[in-house]
Amino acid sequence: MELIIESVSKKYKGDFYGLRDLSLQIQTGILGLLGPNGAGKSTLMRILSTITQPTGGKVSWNGVDITKDPNAVRSILGYLPQDFGVYPHLNAVEFLEYLAAIRGLDYKIVRKRIDELLHLVNLHEVRKKPLNGFSGGMRQRVGIAQALLNDPKLLIVDEPTVGLDPEERIRFRNLLSELSGDRIVILSTHIVSDIEATATDIAIVNQGRSVIQAAPSELLAATVGKVWEWLIPSDTWMEVRKQLLVSSTIQSSEGVRVRVIADTQPSAESRLVTPTLEDAYLYYISANKQGAAV
Ligand SMILES: Nc1ncnc2c1ncn2[C@@H]1O[C@H](COP(=O)(O)OP(=O)(O)OP(=O)(O)O)[C@@H](O)[C@H]1O
Fold it and tell me: pTM for this one?
């Protein structure tokens, strides 16, 4: 299984590009698509799910160009859009049966599948309750169940953890990890921790372009020797922030412990520390903004 995105662009009205010459090669596993708001993640997800056509480039699923032949991917595609909505007065079973019917899926097969999926997403006990009583996390799990109705080989999930509380977020993450098996899962997010433990591959996008695609370990390795920590007096904090790329800070009674990303030692007191994926993400986004080669 392979999804190849070659030099894909999406030009909106007024010469504005949502995507520009973006290329990625995606194999079985979970691809975490990371980028700040407005980077072009949803535009890419909509192109991959054949809702929108690119204005340039090619997307191939197992060798077939889906921009020319969208049906080549539709039957094996599961998609959870960012703005997934439910019919509030239906219960989970009715809602999933309704979606299966409009997609033309076989009722007999689907009935059994819905029962299995409701167990999988841990909603079986509440399957007969109207959806308007469901929390954000429960609705997202219904969203995942609908995306899995046809047992897709390509599962696309766009910013699924927005609005979820920390516990729901962890549960959702674990669920996606269980689902990866023999399929391609593409998970878009601007929150690094959403994909930290689960992604087999990470693509960072910014301003419509692909900044890098690599395994999490490669991203971390590239940031080794660039992350520094030291304690500064509280009143110098604003100055440090203006001059350096600050990844995080911890306030204490002795001052502020700053974590900075820099190619060379930023201060005589600073010490190198082990990078996290969050540091690596910041490093690549920042280098991309400055136009540096990364
Ligand atoms: N239909 C449209 N017409 C014009 N511009 C658009 C359209 N859809 C998206 N854009 C613009 O394209 C850029 C990329 O948007 P997109 O929604 O793909 O980003 P994103 O990474 O998903 O961000 P977010 O997480 O905020 O949704 C943004 O600047 C957005 O304003």
Answer: 0.90
